[in-house]
Amino acid sequence: MTVAQPQFLAQPSDICLFGATGDLAGRKLYPALYCLFRDQHLPAGCRILGLARSKMSRDEFVGQIREKLREHAPEGEFEDSVWVDFSAMLDYQPLDVHSTESFQNMASHLNDRGERPLIHYLSTSPSLYGDICRGLESVGLAGAQARVVIEKPIGTDLESSRVINSAVDAVFPESSIYRIDHYLGKETVQNLLALRFANGIFEPRWNSAGIDNVQITVAETVGVEGRWSYYDDSGAMRDMVQNHILQLLSLVAMEAPASLDPDAVRDEKVKVLRALRPLSERADIDANTVRGQYRAGALGTGPVPGYLEEEGCNPESSTETFVAIRAEINNWRWSGVPFYLRTGKRMPSRYSEISVQFRDVPHNLFAGENTDVQANRLIIRLQPQEGIQLQMMYKVRGLDGMQLRKAELNLSTEDLRPPRNAYERLLLDAVRGNQTLFVRRDEVEVAWKWVDQIMQGWESDPEGPKPYNAGTYGPTAAIALTEKHGHSWNE
Ligand code: BG6
Predict the structure, then answer these.
(1) Residue-level pLDDT at 1
(2) pTM metric for this prediction
């Protein structure tokens, strides 16, 4: 069987990286581009043009990127011989997004482009997206060959996200806008699609008759990592729930799309988000959400300060660093099935997983055997160790009646290849022109609408977030959120 070549792979492209000296670029984007180049996914002749405010020469810029790669490329993967060829692709131009002259210089830099695809990656503050897009348009760099990749946060609520999206939409058609949610680039997230739609055995039970509850946890051990004021403007709800967690929920709950065509998949995802039961009344919000803020405590590495003691903090802040929500999806498939969503900073361990708890067997044959029958559970682990496990019951060997035990069927392949940085996948898809793993405008807006209502309810609550000690899984109220419905968090 011959495999069709991706549409744009054979064609070299120009990748313009705005915010080229920023943190995301240094930690994730250059290592991703370097690995793609090394593995021959980026065709020879591609060019990477870094753009940022700082005035520096190409040589200085290239020197900086080399340092970033030595620090952030996967361990042992930086090779001088690859670097020589990779660095030949790099170029730099200082750019002031408010200056037409800067954009004219950029255009002359790229003047021999011909029909090459042009990828503009905006790794800047979203407040600059509109200016950058208009600047590109004014010098003819926003035409049919151009695509724009934009990062979250797209706004801080529905209203502000519309302003940002409209500024980008005014220049680029939706088919050229690639909104990144890096969780969609994670290997296990794509495996979730394979698990659900390349296997027939789950589908008949993938509904309220077969599933008791679903849990999505993104637990982090880190605190605010020196960016207190950025984090404080956002909080766990805007930083994690509105995007990463709702994206995971939509992939777990969506109907089978007719194909992997970007709009076929995104049509199904957005239907799930639209069907989320609104949490708008205060009593409903209080009963189904918990927000927390970490106090000083200890993790494996030793004592850590509380959120209100971190460097640069405002000691009055009521921003949440933890959220737990009991969500429901109002449709035939999921009616009555709780989706417990949880994320927080300074948790005891770093792990992200989706846990699908199936229903109990309808009748326990083994009740007289003094043995426990536990319902099946499917665990889709995103990190730290990616993998998929199905928990099942089996009989222990021996003559002591029917002694049952829970075993884990490991569905992960024995894949010895190192995990890829999520940005590799997404950058490659942007170069190839495949939008399936990017978020459409309507998804962003429907997610904001749901989140906004909850946040408005919280604003009218004088109590503020509940404290929890660093090194714990959030306030005790988060445990009660599941236990009052007869469930418990999978930890
Ligand atoms: C980012 C958030 O989007 O995701 C960060 O802004 C968070 O606060 C990060 O730490 C988590 O990503 P990952 O891939 O490390 O789970």
Answers:
(1) 33
(2) 0.94
Q: Which of 154, 218, 220 to mutate to test the pocket of ligand 1 (most atoms within 8 A of CB)?
A: 220
Question: Contact at 8 Å (CB) between 296 and 304?
Answer: yes
Q: How far is the CA of 239 from the centre of ligand 1 (A)?
A: 8
What is the rounded distance in angstroms from the CA atom of residue 273 to the CA atom of residue 266? 11
Same domain, yes or no: 260 and 408? yes
Q: For tokens 């930086």, what's the residue?
A: 78
Indicate the DSSP class of residue 124.
S
Cβ(151) to ligand 1 under 6 A? no
Catalytic choice (244, 363, 485, 487) = 244
Domain that holds residue 63: 14-151
Q: Whose CA is nearest to atom 2 of ligand 1?
A: 239
Task: Report in angstroms the alpha-carbon separations of 371 from 301, 314, 404, 468.
Answer: 40, 54, 6, 37
* pLDDT for the residue 419: 74
Q: Total domain count for the chain?
A: 2
**How many angstroms separate the CA atoms of 433 and 135, rounded?**
23
Residues 146 and 193 in one domain: no
Verify whether ligand 1 is closer than 6 Å to residue 320 (CB atom): no
Q: Are strands 289-295 and 322-327 parallel, antiparallel or unpaired?
A: antiparallel
In sign, the C-alpha dihedral spanning 197, 198, 204, 207 is: negative
Residue of minimum CA distance from atom 13 in ligand 1? 183
Decide if 447 is inside a domain: yes
| Structure tokens, 113 | 């482009």
* CATH code for the domain in which residue 286 is found: 3.30.360.10
244 is catalytic: yes
pLDDT tens-digit series, residues 334-392: 999 999 999 999 999 999 999 999 999 999 988 887 778 999 999 999 988 888 999 99
Q: What residues have CB less than 8 Å from 367, skipping those under 6 apart?
A: none
* Cα of 27 from ligand 1 centre, angstroms: 12
Q: Are residues 264 and 117 in the same domain?
A: no
CA 290 to chain centre: 22
Phi, psi of 479 (to 5 degrees): -75, -45
Q: Does ligand 1 lie within 6 Å of residue 220's CB atom?
A: yes
Which 3 state secondary structure label does DSSP give 139? coil
